[in-house]
Design brief:
CATH topology: Jelly Rolls
Radius of gyration: 17 Å
Distance between the termini: 25 Å
Largest sheet: 6 strands, antiparallel
Keywords: Signal
Pfam family, one: Cupin_5
Domain DUF985: 33-167
Helix content: 10-25%
CATH superfamily: Jelly Rolls
Shape: globular
Number of helices: 5
Signal peptide: 1-25
Structural class: alpha+beta
Number of domains: 1
Organism: Acetobacter oeni
């Protein structure tokens, strides 16, 4: 989908009331309805469900990108819709590109961000804070923080996402590096198969 069509699709969702409608947000099974409506698929390893709404057909040669991309060709940009739940949360991971998160509805999203210099901070994505930039190389994990038990968000990345840019967090490694965040790390990592 082209960027202009993506923006129009999201605008249509907002104006239709589906995204921020309080009535829809309180409907049991609202997360399942979104997953079905947008034909979302489970996100391997990380958790949650996604639907790709944009992936440019134009690409950037790996030689033109910083060395961290390993000389691998990337789409110019990508955008997804994302639903996470208290069980299908976004497990700690890091990316090679800044990720811009957008809030569309459901519960606020609570983030744990672990920086390369050993710092930990928390952030929220919600109606009052509808966008959040997670810088590259920052460990990020998130989960809905509210009574509904689900959140509807989206992310954009440039250069666009490819699977090789994703690194899952390991509970024991992260706990050693960020001992003061042990409880949050345990809550945002998995030891078994992903349950979206």
């Amino acid at each position: 989908m082209r960027p202009a069509r993506t923006a129009l699709a999201i605008t249509a969702l907002v104006t239709s009331g589906l995204i921020l409608s309080p009535t829809h947000a309180r409907t049991p099974g609202a997360a399942a309805s979104l997953i079905a409506r947008f034909h979302m698929q489970p996100v391997p390893v990380e958790g949650g469900w996604f639907a790709q709404v944009q992936r440019t057909d134009e690409t950037v040669d790996g030689a033109a990108l910083p060395a961290r991309y390993g000389n691998t060709r990337h789409p110019v940009s990508t955008a997804i819709l994302y639903v996470e739940t208290t069980i299908g949360f976004s497990a700690l991971h890091r990316l090679k590109t800044d990720e811009v998160w957008h809030f569309y509805g459901g519960d606020p999203v609570h983030f744990l961000l672990l920086t390369p210099d050993g710092q930990a901070r928390e952030a929220s994505l919600d109606a009052d804070n509808p966008a959040l930039v997670v810088p590259r190389d920052v460990w990020q994990g998130s989960a809905p923080a509210g009574p509904r038990g689900w959140s509807f968000t989206g992310t954009t990345m440039a250069p666009g996402f490819i699977p090789q840019d994703f690194e899952p967090g390991q509970r024991d490694v992260l706990t050693r590096r960020y001992p003061a965040s042990q409880r949050q790390i345990a809550a945002l990592t998995r030891t078994g198969p992903v349950s979206p």
